[in-house]
Amino acid sequence: MLFLFLVPCLTMERMACFLFKTEPDVYSFDDFLRDKETNWDGVTNPTAVKYLREMKAGTKWIFYHTGDERTALGTGAVVSVDPTDPKVPIVKVKVGKRLKQPKTLAAIKAEPLFAASPLVIIGRLSVVPLTEEQWNWFVG
Fold first, then answer.
1. Do 105 and 123 touch, CB atoms closer than 8 A?
2. Per residue in 99-134, pLDDT tens?
3. By CB neighbour count within 10 A (0-12 exposed, 13-18 middle, 19+ buried), where does 24 fall?
4. Pick from 78, 67, 53: nearest CA to 21
5. Domains, the chain, ranges and CATH?
6. Exposed, middle or buried by CB within 10 Å (0-12, 13-18, 19+), for 9?
C-alpha cells in the first residue's frame, strides 16, 4: 500500500480533516441533510478503517459523491467513534453545510494542492486525509 506523508489539517484543537466518499444512490448529501446525523458504515479498506479509528469527536470532513457525479458537496463532523467492533469502528457523524461551490473531481485533479493526495492517487480509497490547505480549498 502506498503511504504518503501529508501535513494533517489542523484546527485549534489539532484535529485532522478528511474526505468521505459515498455513492449518491446509496447515501447522498441530501439524505445527510435530511437525517442530520448518521453512522458512517460500509468501509472495508484497511487504510480507510485505520483513518476512521484515528478520528475523534469534532473531526471535520468533506462529503464527496462518487460514481457519475464525482463531486464534493458539503461538510460534516464526527460526533463519536465507538471502537468496540474489532473490524470497523462505529463512527457517528453530523451534517455540516453545503459547500458554496461544489468541487468536481476534474477541478480537484487540476488543483496542484492535490497532486500527491490519496484522493487522486488511490482513487478507490473511501476515507482520505486532507491537509489544511486542501480543506481550505474545499470550503473557501
1. no
2. 999 999 999 999 999 999 999 999 889 999 999 999
3. middle
4. 67
5. 17-133 (3.10.590.10)
6. buried
